Amino acid sequence: MTEAIHHFIEQYGLLAVFLGCVAEGESAAILGGFFAHQHVFVLWHTFVAASLGAFVGDTFFFILGRSFADNRHVVRLRRRPGFRRAYRLLNTHPNIFVLSNRYIYGMRLVGGIAAGLSTIPAPRFVVLNAISSVIWAMLFSTIGYVFGLGAEQIIGKALAHHERLLIGLGIGLTVAVLAWLAARHIARRERGREQ
Q1: Vertex 44: Cα angle to 42 and 47 (nearest 5)
Q2: In terms of Cα–Cα distance, which of 140, 138, 89, 145 is closest to 118?
Q3: CA 116 and chain centroid, separation
Q4: Residues of the chain with pLDDT > 70: what percent?
Q5: Taking Cα atoms as reference points, which of 47, 52, 2, 56 lies closest to residue 29?
Q6: What is the Cα–Cα distance from 30 to 172, expressed in whole angstroms?
Q7: Are the CB atoms for 31 and 168 separated by under 8 Å?
Q8: DSSP characters for 50-77?
């Protein structure tokens, strides 16, 4: 069973990192870095998968905002907590906003839609988004890689492959739960500010 899981992660893990980074993907990038440390992936492959996923996700939301502003799904996203604040920041500091938006958990989707609705030129958004995606992917994948180094020192080098995979999955689940809790807390604060 463990060999099957290991083989599955080797075959489809980078695709999972890519797809995880299309959405709010810090945990996917961190987990990719952890698996790179465990020699399941090559680290630079993780960087590429994570940065492409982040770039595609934000560009998709930008296109949604730019081309489908009156679509009911976009209108509903515009009602999310923090949208007005993101739109205001985007119009006053567009470069800084596009470069830093992905670091604010829970704001990537709202920020992408807001960027699409703003007056920022599409080529400028694409260049800034590409720069931000690469830096973001390297940062979070490296965090996962370094965490792998620390886990190996703490737990010991005698971990078998299947134990490493289970630890990695546990870490990914823990990061996802903590990120979800942080997003709920931030959304609650934003709702309080907007009322």
Answers
A1: 120
A2: 89
A3: 19
A4: 71
A5: 47
A6: 8
A7: yes
A8: HHHHHHHHHHHHHHHHHH-TTSHHHHHH
